[in-house]
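Whiteboard transcription, Tuesday session. T.W. wrote the structure tokens on the left side:
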């Protein structure tokens, strides 16, 4: 792999793609630092320090700190992701969307168009809600975070953050088209990784002030390395079901008769379950910020509490099964195998194959749900027991590792394609000489 990365700089096309990706991510980080007019930055930062466990702190994590500064990219890429997930889930109830997903490139372009329209609409709604909420927020030190509340502030805020969300969406699409990797995922990863220096600085400060021992720091680094290695291993782990293709004779040629496998990922749902679970659980804490009557229920669902962790794990397990059932249809897989003459040894084609695949998928999804739950709960335990700023953990760590693996896989694909084309060119040159 290291040799492949060293060879990447020698390929002009891949070098241009990597440079373009780096430049676009740099533009995104510059936009995060541009503030929206009419906001008291210091008062807003003090509010976010006290609202780390609410919906604002959750959105701020995925915006790379843009919401904390209330920059032009305050909404980040979350509206686009929310609309994409909603459309992905609606295809179960909408035959029209289901057909679009099956139409190939034309259907994907239509889905992308709907996602863009939905992103604009959702950004307008979220921008208005955030602007209205900011007018009601009182900073911990007293005073409002908005200089001049009113409709002028709300309209300017909605226009600014909506334009920022659309621009971030466009940046992600440009990375996907002209850069390397999935642009939307890389934007999220850039926002999460950008907060790493501050986490490292806080940890070093804890060690200097004696609040954390050197031994505990070494232990935290070892745990982080082991958890990262475990995520890499389990994210690439597969349950391979053997598939045999029947031999067919067409004229004088024989087709089929090969042995392949059907790969089933241990974690088919990816990072969707913890994102959904966290989004649901942060709503009570967020509502308690504005509704005093809910203050007594806020402590029950506070991150780090036993009730919070139990409900969090239960929601992760539920969404692992739910999202896997939405995105993977064993009946369609069994029909495709039967259509192309494939079968699982010892299993009859058709309904029995679908039942077998569903049974295997249900078992490995349980293991994947337990693995995702453990990764997401572990940082909470470390923060609660050792009082350390364990930044890379939970959903953030799953996203960073998953995006890194996908990007590396695409780089390796470009390298292999380049080597394959070079081999074919040399072969053609030799054949001409031989002729």
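and on the right, the sequence the group agreed on:
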């Amino acid at each position: 792999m290291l040799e492949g990365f060293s060879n990447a700089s020698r390929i002009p096309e891949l070098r241009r793609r990597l440079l373009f990706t780096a430049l676009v991510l740099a533009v995104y980080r510059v936009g995060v630092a541009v503030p929206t007019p009419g906001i008291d930055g210091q008062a807003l930062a003090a509010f976010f320090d006290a609202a780390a466990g609410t919906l604002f702190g959750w959105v701020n994590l995925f915006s790379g700190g843009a919401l904390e500064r209330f920059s032009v990219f305050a909404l980040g890429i979350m509206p686009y992701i929310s609309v994409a997930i909603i459309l992905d889930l609606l295809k179960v109830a909408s035959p029209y969307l289901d057909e679009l997903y099956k139409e190939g490139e034309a259907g994907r372009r239509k889905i992308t168009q709907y996602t863009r329209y939905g992103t604009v609409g959702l950004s307008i709604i979220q921008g208005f809600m955030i602007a209205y909420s900011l007018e009601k927020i009182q900073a911990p030190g007293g005073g409002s975070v908005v200089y001049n509340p009113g409709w002028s502030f709300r309209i300017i805020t909605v226009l600014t953050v909506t334009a920022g969300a659309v621009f971030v969406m466009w940046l992600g699409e440009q990375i996907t088209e002209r850069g390397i990797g999935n642009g939307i995922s890389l934007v999220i990863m850039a926002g999460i990784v950008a907060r790493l220096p501050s986490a490292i600085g806080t940890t070093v400060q804890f060690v200097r002030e004696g609040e954390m021992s050197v031994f505990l720091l070494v232990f935290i680094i070892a745990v982080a390395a082991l958890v990262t290695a475990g995520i890499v291993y389990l994210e690439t782990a597969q349950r391979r079901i053997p598939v045999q293709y029947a031999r067919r004779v067409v004229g004088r040629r024989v087709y089929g008769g090969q042995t392949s496998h059907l790969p089933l990922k241990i974690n088919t749902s990816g990072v969707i379950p913890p994102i959904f679970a966290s989004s649901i659980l942060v709503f009570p804490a967020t509502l308690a910020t504005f509704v005093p009557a809910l203050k007594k229920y806020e402590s029950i669902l506070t991150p780090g509490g036993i009730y919070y962790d139990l409900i969090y794990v239960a929601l992760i397990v539920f969404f692992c099964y739910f999202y896997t059932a939405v995105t993977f249809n064993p009946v369609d897989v069994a029909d495709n195998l039967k259509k192309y003459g494939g079968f699982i040894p010892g299993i009859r084609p058709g309904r029995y194959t679908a039942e077998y695949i569903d049974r295997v998928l249900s078992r490995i999804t349980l293991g994947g749900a337990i693995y995702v739950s453990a990764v997401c709960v572990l940082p909470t335990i470390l923060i609660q027991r050792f009082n350390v700023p364990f930044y890379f953990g939970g959903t953030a760590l799953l996203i960073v590792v998953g995006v890194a693996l996908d990007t590396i896989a695409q780089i390796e694909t470009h390298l292999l394609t380049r080597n394959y084309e070079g081999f074919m060119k040399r072969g053609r040159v030799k054949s001409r000489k031989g002729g």
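Someone added at the bottom: The chain is about 70% helix and 5% strand.
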